[in-house]
């Protein structure tokens, strides 16, 4: 088999990528700073918070999409490893 990673390692990476792509870290200190900086102007605070939430949503969607692409690549690697193993078995048989 020509892959550096084993099938189990690839499966573990697929699971890890799925977990990573679903976790969203929200920098609460940034949001708190924005709110404190605009305490005198509720409208501006609301605009900044809404903008912040939109940015976080966009980043979360991007992260999920990256995770899907990485998982697809890992699945292709795993499938190729299976094919390589089957080819090797058919080539050499039970020698």
What distinguishing features does this structure have?
3 helices, mainly alpha, 81% helix, 95 residues
Average pLDDT, rounded to a whole number, is 83
The beta-strand count equals 0
Q: What is the straight-line distance between the termini?
A: 16 Å
Morphology: rod-shaped
- How many helices in DSSP terms? 3
pLDDT < 50 stretches: none
How many domains make up the coordinates?
Answer: 1
Sheet-strand content, in percent, reads under 5%
> What is the rounded Rg?
23 Å
Q: Describe the biggest sheet?
A: none
Helix content bin? over 70%
What class do helices, strands and sheet pairing give?
A: mainly alpha
Secondary-structure element sequence?
Answer: HHH
Oligomer: single chain
Short synopsis of the structure:
The chain is mainly alpha-helical. The chain has three helices and no strands. The chain has one domain.
């Amino acid at each position: 088999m020509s892959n550096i990673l084993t099938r189990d390692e690839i499966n573990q990476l697929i699971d890890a990528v799925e977990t990573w792509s679903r976790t969203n870290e929200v920098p609460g200190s940034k949001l708190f700073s924005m709110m404190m900086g605009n305490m005198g102007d509720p409208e501006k605070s609301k605009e900044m918070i809404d903008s912040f939430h939109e940015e976080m949503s966009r980043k979360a969607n991007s992260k999920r999409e990256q995770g899907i692409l990485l998982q697809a690549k890992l699945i292709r690697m795993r499938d190729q490893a299976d094919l390589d193993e089957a080819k090797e078995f058919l080539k050499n048989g039970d020698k």
